[in-house]
Amino acid sequence: MKKSTEIVFYVVATALIIVLSFWLGHKAYDWMPVAATVEAQKVDDLFSFLVWLGSIIFLGITSVICFSLLTCRAERGDFTEGHSVRQNTKLEIIWTVIPMILVAVIVTRSVVIYDMLDVEGLDLLISEGKFTQLVKTALAQTSSTPGGHHHPGQPSPAAVTLAQAPGAPDSTINTIGVTARQFSWNFAYPDANITSTELHMPVNQPVRFSLTSEDVLHGFYVPEFRLKQEIIPQRTIDIVLTPIVEGNFTLHDSQLSGTYFALMDADVVVESEESYQQWLTQVASLPPTPAPNPAFDEYSHPQPSLLGHVDPAIAPKAPPIVNYHS
Amino acid sequence: MTSITPLEPLGPSRELLPTEPGFFTHWQQLLTFNRDHKIVGLQYMLSSFVFFLIGGLLAMLIRAELLTPELNVVTRQFYNTLFTMHGSIMIFLWTIPFLVGMTNFLLPLMIGARDVTFPTLNALSFWVFFTGAILMLVSFFTPSGAADSGWWSYPPLSVQSGFGNLFSGESIWLLSVLLGGIASIMGAVNFVSTIVWMRAPGMTLFRMPIFVWAALTAQTMQLIFLPVLTADLILLYFDLNFGTPFFNVADGGDPVLYQHFFWFYSHPVVYVWILPVFGVFSEIIPAFTRNPLFGYRTVALATASFAVITGFVWVHHMFAGDTPGWMRLLFMATTGLVAIPSGIKIFAWTATIWKSKLHLDTAMLFAVGGVVMFLLAGITGVMLSAVPVDLHVNNTHFVVGHFHYVVNNTIVMGLYAAIYFWFPKVTGRLMAEGWGKVHFAFMFIGSTLTFFPMHILGLQGMVRRISSYQPDLQEWNVVSSLGAFLLGVSVLPFIVNAIVSWKHGVVAGNNPWQATGLEWTLPSPVPKETFEATPTVLQPPYNYGDPNVVLFDPSDPY
Ligand code: HEM
Ligand SMILES: [Cu+2]
Ligand SMILES: [Cu+2]
After folding, report:
1. Distance CA B68, CA B475 (A)
2. Mean pLDDT (whole number) for B520-534
3. Which residues of chain A make contact with B388, given a CB cutoff of 8 A?
């Protein structure tokens, strides 16, 4: 190749890689389930950004390697030397500094986004009035771009007008007590004085989950909500999330908790304020009864399997007795 | 750096006299308490390969269960045992011991030493390891079955069942890992002291091959970090069998402390595995590109830097735990630092390949394949270091995909590359190229099909260690399982090739790849007495390249 054709070739290849990476970064939103909380959108923005950067690096370096594999083959038995360049100080400084810059950018972005999530409790945000702002911006973005996706660095025009709209969510936070045990979930609504094995919450309002475990480690994880939290016995850990999409989701135990770990799921319902209130009043009148429990059922009626002990190492605790179960 | 010195040969090449046998003459040697570093190396490598096959078989069962959403192949109890023992065997019975074996075999040859500093300790190390390994396998046959609380063995779960039963699977598991740890410490003492004291004259630090730099760094890390795991497991053993309350919350213990101790070792250990594999890449790529390793000194320093950086990143495994915000962010920043030396290495290998004279023999294919896989593993690793993203994918199959790109797609690939490359030094013969390429193709495709879909599954929220899952996740699980079966089959051409070539392969001669490095001045197979006269090293490593350019400066202070 002539020098000039070579340069044109490299420039075109680089441009292609950048465009392709940008497209992948954009597609990355689709690899996740619906972003059903304010927090989820922030996480997805960060992930998309990382996919974009990562693709440039991956495609860039693999292209160089593949290009060499295709064009620089030696004859069999030709053991003469390639070239003898042992080092190039400038180049080596560049490729030490570039990762440093990238890492600095990624860390900074992550810190900024983590600060917005403030999973440890929202006190700070609320006291500064930033929180309601955050919810409104997010709401505006969902309404302006269907599917819950929006593009990083591109504030939606609707955000500005909606931010001043009245009827912003109250800043007093609903608290739901979450108790995990082998192998069931129990949700307590202290204000309404009821318990349930189905997790109900109103849309567009922050909810504080107060997580405890009666036995071993568990994990609180609704993929659509993104943020997960390990639960540790004898500790109460709070996280705050703001659901913004109505629908049915599944809560999974995300930290290995014993034999029936895979069955430790719970239904999650995010609904409008009215139906939520309705549900609360309706449930308050129900007497507590034992909830159905897949782990317990399977323990009582073991399924046939080809291989392995039938005896579980850990028998499920009796199903919880609650006001409401599905 | 201007004087032009004609290059001296690395030392007179020794031809194997017709009467001189290789170091390995009959298989019974493998059963002895043998002080020859080459036999110890072979003992480690052969036995751990058998354990690799067992660990792989368990993986096939895991993937068979995950072929369908419902539970239908194994019981839930046995599934937990499967992934626990798969992980434990792959780590403690395959990756670590194989690398110890390889280091045992190669290290003294590469630095011109006749053996390691403490040959008896070396032999003891193998038999301690082997006892532990057998214990771990035997634990399958205890009445309650083998350990089932994951390879992390987090309390309280790990002490919940089998309490006070010295012969429970968990109890035996702990003993086995402890024995493995003791064997590793013995090995580390030997390797570090061998590198420090037994280098041939002229083998200065900056003339050591990268594999030796890697061994020095990795084994120093074992000495620094492994004692912490040992203490952790002993305390857990006491909790389990004697009811002490170290980690028992009910009695004021702290299960999170266990996690800190555990990861304080178990993060660095990942580099104990991967650094030698980086070393393998750095040996093989120059040999098959006929170029010196680009930026050798930077690569050497980057290797050593891991020993420091990896000591400050362990909390990234606990981001989703009860970890305060400041700690999450601090450890995110330190974790990011790991990308810098890793990047330096990848760039150096890429630059070595660029505009070179490539020979794509099987060893090289595995090395380049491993580099590409590691690139992807590194990128998903940086994603995991970003706390908000990690909080979503932590404990999902995204993480399983990420770390298998490291442990299987990079490390196992690298180990295969090493086997194809150094096979002649053990057997005197070359492995067959055609079968090698079939092996590579199956493995590369199989690995990608198995582990890439796991990233997607994890992003969609598939939790790891579950024996049944939601039906809408089945498609990618089928791809992953079929890929895994292909990966399982890929080992067959390798085994046949190795066995047949051992007896009937093409005779290799001292240096079939025209590579630099002291081991290639020795006959193949290596005789029992390696360096009759201690060689003097007059050249930098990877001395490929135009001999008219000055590569060696006698006034160089290093
Ligand atoms: C031979 C191909 C392999 C396949 C198909 C495979 C498959 C799997 C799968 C599906 C899991 C996840 C199980 C679950 O979370 O439900 C797993 C876990 C694991 N694998 Fe592999 N694997 C392979 C090779 C390896 C290798 C070479 C290593 C080397 C260190 C390894 C180390 C681990 C570890 C540490 C775990 C975690 C176990 C735990 O959760 O406690 N695997 N493997
Ligand atoms: Cu199944
Ligand atoms: Cu780590």
Report:
1. 9
2. 89
3. 42-43, 46, 110, 113-114, 117, 226-227
Distance (angstroms) between ligand 2 centre and the Cα of B474 equals 10
Does residue B116 have its Cβ closer than 6 Å to ligand 1? no
pLDDT digits (tens, 9 = 90+) for B419-441: 999 999 999 999 999 999 999 99
Task: Please tell me whether residue A182 adopts helix, strand or coil conformation.
Answer: coil
**Does residue B12 have a pLDDT over 50?**
no
Best CA proximity match to B248, nearest among B133, B171, B339, B157: B157
Burial of A6 (0-12, 13-18, 19+ CB in 10 A): exposed
Angle formed at CA A252 by CA A251 and CA A258, multiple of 5 degrees: 145
Residue B144 reports pLDDT greater than 90: no
**Probe target for ligand 1 pocket from B86, B149, B259, with the most ligand atoms within 8 Å of CB:** B86
CB-CB neighbors (< 8 A) of A125 in chain B: none
* CB-CB contact of A102 with A53 (8 Å): yes
Find, among A148, A137, A122, the residue nearest to A32 by Cα: A148
B405 alpha carbon, closest ligand: 1
Residue A154 carries which side chain, given as an amino acid letter? Q
Tokens of A106: 């990624």
B150 CB near ligand 1 (under 6 Å): yes
- What is the C-alpha to C-alpha distance for residues B269 and B271, in angstroms, rounded to an integer? 5
Query: Tens digits of per-residue pLDDT, A89-118?
Result: 888 898 889 989 999 999 999 988 888 876
Residue A137 has pLDDT above 60, yes or no: no
pLDDT higher than threshold 90 for residue B394: yes
Amino acid sitting at position B157: L
Beta carbons of B81 and B147 less than 8 angstroms apart: yes
User: Residue A18's pLDDT is what?
Assistant: 95
Task: Confirm or reject: Cβ of B397 under 6 Å from ligand 1.
Answer: no
Domains identified in chain B and CATH numbers? 36-537 (1.20.210.10)
Whether omega for the bond prior to residue B525 falls within 30 degrees of 0, making it cis, is yes
**What confidence category does residue B161 fall into, taking pLDDT thresholds of 50, 70 and 90?**
confident
- To the nearest 10°, report the CA torsion of A126, A128, A129, A134: -80
Q: What is the pLDDT of residue B487?
A: 97
The set of long-range contacts for B402-407, using a CB threshold of 8 Å and a minimum separation of 24, is: B402/B377, B402/B455, B403/B377, B404/B447, B404/B450, B404/B451, B404/B454, B405/B373, B405/B374, B405/B376, B405/B377, B405/B380, B405/B451, B406/B270, B406/B274, B406/B374, B406/B377, B406/B381, B407/B90, B407/B91, B407/B95, B407/B273
What are the backbone dihedrals phi and psi of residue B76, each rounded to the nearest 5 degrees, phi first?
Answer: -60, -40
Distance CA A217, CA B245 (A): 17
SS (H, E, C) B17-55: CCCCCECCCCHHHHHCCCCCHHHHHHHHHHHHHHHHHHH
Closest Cα to atom 24 of ligand 1: B408
What is the per-residue pLDDT across A10-42, written as a single tens digit (0 to 9) for each? 999 999 999 999 999 999 999 999 999 988 999
Q: Are B509 and B88 in contact (CB under 8 A)?
A: no
